[in-house]
Amino acid sequence: MADKQGITFALEGVDEPTFFQVLRDLTHDSTFARPLQLLVEPPRQGTPGRITLAFERADRERALGAMQRFKTILLRFGVQVDSIRTPS
Description:
Strand content: 25-35%
Number of strands: 4
CATH class: Alpha Beta
């Protein structure tokens, strides 16, 4: 699995209900279907929620397109993305 990469979204200031609404929309959107995977860390007191879009190196272009869709879904809920980490 050395070829596995991920784009991590840190969702600062997003409460738990909003986090799970965003997650629901992501899981119902075919853009995020296999071979892409969503790795989820719900928000905890003092720690922002994180959602990582995981993919194999061969699926990088698909993942970059999904990242744009992800940002559109976040905007629907008025969520500002504080940081995005992408692999080099």
